[in-house]
Amino acid sequence: MIIEQFITNKITQMHAYVNAVIDNKLHYTELDQFILDTMAEWTLLKVVDETPNSAQERVFWHLMHEISLHGAQALTQDLFFKSEMNTCLDFFKGTGSYPIDCIGWRPIA
User: Fold this and answer.
1) What is the C-alpha separation between 103 and 10, in angstroms, rounded?
2) How far apart are CA 85 and CA 72, in angstroms?
3) Cβ neighbours around 99 below 10 Å, total
4) pTM
5) What value does the mean pLDDT take over residues 34-38?
6) pLDDT of res. 104
7) 66 close to 84: Cβ distance less than 8 angstroms
8) CA–CA separation, 57 and 24 (whole Å)
9) What is the mean pLDDT of residues 97-102?
10) How far is CA 61 from CA 23, 24, 105, in A?
11) Left, alpha or beta for 94 (phi > 0: left; psi -120 to 50: alpha)?
């Protein structure tokens, strides 16, 4: 699987997971597990390039790192964090601008 296809697929899934947690339709531990599974799948691609290819990929990695750092439970408890993550989701949908302070670096092997 090529990197762009991987990112595109995961953005769609991430969008669904984050929205479901925010809407209380999915327990946050499911999103945490999705993050872990996605990172495990990423390592199978054996990526060595250090520079993300697109703005969408940078926002995707920013979202991944932020949720990993704060935990998906923060989406239900921290309004500022929830707002920041919604900004990323809006960018994915094309209805928002590039998130301020977005630093999304792809992990490398």
Assistant:
1) 18
2) 10
3) 22
4) 0.91
5) 96
6) 87
7) yes
8) 26
9) 90
10) 22, 23, 6
11) left
